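[recover] target loaded
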């Protein structure tokens, strides 16, 4: 068995290197990009090869001309991430950027495949080979995923870590679930609401090993990164403060509210945000009370993901990759209930419409603000529809127990 796994590992390693080489020769050698990865790669080299502070202003100013950004946008050149993010690409810091980009973009594609396989295992869904290929290709072409790969973002890592957390909890490997959640520290703003829910639910079940794994892995990441550069937490905070001074942005809910009611956008946005938070808290309450119900727990997570994407003032469309978690679950449920044609049509709409909207509204490299709303809003409509359907079904079961039992 060990020899078989070793052989599989060697084959996968060869395929990974081969794909990276082809990507280098066909794309990154002539078209360097993945700007979000470049700033992290450059900062990592400054630390590992020169012993410099990767968060320092002088490093950021060196990055700007390489990314064709003006000096006033110095925050775009900052390292901007907690230092443990370095552990996700450490060897690539020693390579020329064209090679590092090729290996990184290949890794993101492989992470996408791992994400799909983890989701299917979580949902205990085994589609036929042709269906599996369609799901993988559709996921790779999904707007937030494709944009993540092109920009070299880290959102797919976070989505995979969340899925691994859920999968480990499902199998009773609570300590490993805590370790997987701790890994999301590389981009903590994506789990600022998700992590408290998972922690609350596990503590309500007295699954203390989850907390132990979270604290142990989180502590290990903090200590190891501080051994590498002891001052990084302070430098990171200073970097964030510089970013906050120049960063603009509107929450997706404010974008939606402006379209619906230009004169009262802020009031409507606040009202909608309050409704979303109340819906999330109600889902949390149901999830804690019905902690043995997988549906209640997952529903609470879906509300949490939508709140984390729709309310914040600083977000990105790449963060919407997290919506693959509910979308793949809903696809499985629709498929098993025989709603295959509507499921396929809905999936195609979510694949095609965001790209059409983007291509018809993009200005230079800037996305239209409504891109921050389009996919989360569609998921919100689906989730509300599921809540209404389940509510009506519960009412029918309560009023007609015999009919509900059929």
């Amino acid at each position: 068995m060990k020899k078989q796994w070793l052989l599989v590992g060697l084959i996968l390693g060869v395929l990974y290197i081969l794909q990276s080489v082809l990507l280098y020769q066909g794309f990154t050698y002539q078209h360097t990009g993945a700007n979000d990865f470049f700033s992290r790669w450059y900062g990592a080299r400054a630390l590992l090869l020169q012993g410099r502070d990767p968060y320092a202003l002088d490093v950021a100013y060196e990055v700007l001309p390489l990314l064709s950004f003006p000096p006033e946008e110095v925050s775009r050149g900052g390292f901007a991430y907690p230092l443990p993010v370095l552990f996700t690409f450490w060897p690539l810091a020693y390579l020329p950027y064209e090679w590092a980009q090729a290996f990184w973009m290949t890794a993101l594609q492989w992470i996408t495949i791992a994400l799909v396989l983890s989701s299917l295992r979580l949902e205990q869904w085994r589609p036929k080979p042709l269906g599996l290929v369609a799901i993988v290709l559709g996921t790779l072409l999904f707007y937030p995923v494709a944009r993540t790969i092109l920009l070299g973002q880290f959102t797919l890592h976070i989505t995979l870590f969340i899925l691994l957390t859920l999968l480990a909890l499902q199998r009773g490997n609570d300590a490993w679930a805590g370790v997987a959640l701790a890994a999301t520290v590389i981009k903590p703003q994506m789990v600022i609401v998700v992590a408290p829910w998972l922690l609350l639910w596990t503590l309500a079940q007295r699954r203390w090993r989850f907390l132990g794994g979270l604290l142990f892995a989180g502590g290990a990441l903090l200590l190891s990164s501080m051994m590498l550069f002891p001052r990084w937490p302070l430098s990171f905070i200073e970097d964030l403060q510089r970013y906050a001074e120049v960063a603009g942005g509107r929450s997706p809910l404010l974008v939606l509210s402006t379209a619906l009611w230009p004169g009262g956008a802020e009031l409507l946005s606040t009202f909608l945000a309050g409704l979303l938070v109340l819906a999330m808290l109600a889902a949390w309450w149901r999830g804690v009370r019905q902690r043995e119900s997988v549906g209640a727990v997952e529903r609470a997570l879906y509300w949490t993901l939508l709140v984390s994407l729709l309310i914040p003032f600083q977000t990105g469309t790449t963060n919407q990759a997290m919506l693959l978690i509910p979308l793949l679950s809903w696809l499985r449920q629709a498929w098993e209930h025989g709603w295959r044609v509507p499921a396929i049509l809905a999936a195609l709409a979510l694949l095609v419409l965001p790209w059409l909207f983007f291509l018809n509204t993009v200005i230079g490299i800037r996305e239209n603000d409504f891109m921050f709303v389009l996919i989360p809003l569609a998921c919100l409509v689906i989730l509300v529809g599921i809540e209404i359907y389940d509510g009506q079904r519960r009412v029918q079961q309560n009023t007609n127990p015999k009919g509900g039992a059929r």
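[recover] notes: The CA atoms of residues 144 and 318 lie 5 Å apart.
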